[in-house]
Design a protein that fits this description.
Blueprint: E1 3-8, H1 18-27, E2 35-40, E3 47-52, E4 58-62, H2 64-67, H3 72-78, E5 83-87, H4 97-113, E6 118-122, H5 130-141, E7 147-151, E8 153-154, E9 157-158, H6 165-174, E10 178-181, H7 196-217, H8 220-223, E11 229-231, H9 233-237, H10 242-245, H11 261-271, E12 275-279, H12 282-285, H13 287-297, E13 302-304, H14 312-316, H15 318-324, H16 329-344
Helix pairs in contact: 5-6, 7-11
């Protein structure tokens, strides 16, 4: 069974329902220098949502195919993908409880329509209010959500903050994994604004890598040892920094030990116990990077993901790319589906 761990979903009626569109546009926090507008794709009269952060720098744009792709199933079939985990792009960072309920119900209805091709995630405000925690429980126990989706940070707060502990306590009790979606930019981002491609890709990677580092070096997993966090985009390429950021004790006698090797040991433990990675935009990483990630983390920590409908070829050629890697057949099977079956409890 081949499972895509990250397929974008937004309410299909978003572009045709003016009242709903207005709600979505107005939840985006201008006070945090983030702006959402409804415009058209250049040179056409086709509507698109444009999100800028900061103003004047496009962070995300979504047209009809991004919101309600007409050929989602056909593209999955072409790419030989059996199932996909539906996840909300970007907006889950800002949705209030009322809108979260609409998304959760809408996503569940959409998944039900296609009889087993899709599994869903719960989206709720992460601040620990009783009503939000009740909605979280409803999503898992009634709607059948297989995970909870969160942003890598909210405002200026990353997920290791005390503000989120009641939320993670409930998730631990429900025993479901957390899908950590990259935001469009890290909290501090002025230095990455200069180029559009650099900003869009490196900004998201930087945000994920910061989030992973903060989580494994905090006491989050000491408090919730069964918490499982799956980070998008290979954790922002965290495999490249794992050994460097968590150094082992020196083999030689050092006059001055400059690194916290005890804290590093805990970080390594959490990295290989509590953290998983999806290869969002799998083929875009290139074979050497993905093979290196598998060597560093182990194939059992990595899940196949395409982020459709951002780019069609990432779905239609994603499985082919994984199968072309210099990995064992068992490692490929783990990445393409077995890990997702285990992590999300998919039969």
């Amino acid at each position: 069974m081949i499972i895509d761990a990250n397929m974008d979903w937004l309410p299909p009626e978003l572009l045709s329902d003016d009242a709903l569109m207005e709600k979505y546009l107005h939840i985006v926090p201008r006070a945090y220098d983030t702006y959402a507008t409804l415009g058209t794709i250049p040179g056409t009269d086709v509507k698109q949502i444009v999100i800028e952060k900061p103003r004047g720098y496009v962070a995300l744009n979504m047209g009809p195919e991004s919101i309600a792709p007409k050929d989602r199933i056909a593209v999955m079939d072409e790419g030989k993908i059996d199932k996909a985990i539906l996840r909300v792009p970007c907006f889950q960072e800002w949705l209030n409880l009322e809108m979260c309920k609409q998304v959760n119900d809408g996503m569940a209805a959409y998944a039900k329509k296609y009889k087993g091709r899709f599994h869903t995630v719960a989206v709720v405000p992460p601040w620990g209010e009783k009503a939000s925690l009740r909605e979280l429980e409803r999503c898992v126990k009634v709607l059948g959500c297989v995970a909870v989706e969160v942003s890598a940070h909210y405002g200026t707060l990353y997920l290791d903050g005390e503000e989120f502990r009641p939320f993670f306590k409930k998730i631990s009790e429900l025993n479901v994994p957390v899908c950590v979606r990259q935001t469009v930019l890290p909290v501090q981002h002025d230095c990455v604004l200069s180029n559009d491609t650099f900003r869009r890709h490196f900004g998201r990677c930087q945000d994920q890598a910061i989030a992973v580092g903060r989580e494994i070096f905090s006491d989050l997993f000491e408090e919730f040892p069964n918490l499982r966090m799956m980070h998008s985009m290979l954790g922002g390429g965290f495999f490249a920094f794992a050994e460097l950021l968590a150094p082992k004790p020196s083999k030689a006698k050092e006059e001055l030990e400059r690194f916290d090797v005890t804290g590093s040991a805990k970080a390594r433990k959490h990295l290989h116990t509590n953290i998983y990675f999806d290869i969002t935009v799998s083929s875009a990483w290139g074979a050497p990077a993905v093979e290196c990630a598998v060597k560093v983390f182990g194939a059992e920590r990595i899940l196949f993901a395409c982020s459709y409908p951002i780019r069609r070829e990432w779905v239609t050629h994603g499985v082919e790319f994984i199968n072309s890697l210099n990995l064992t057949d068992e490692e490929k099977k783990q990445i393409l589906g077995l890990n997702a079956q285990k992590l999300f409890g998919i039969a």
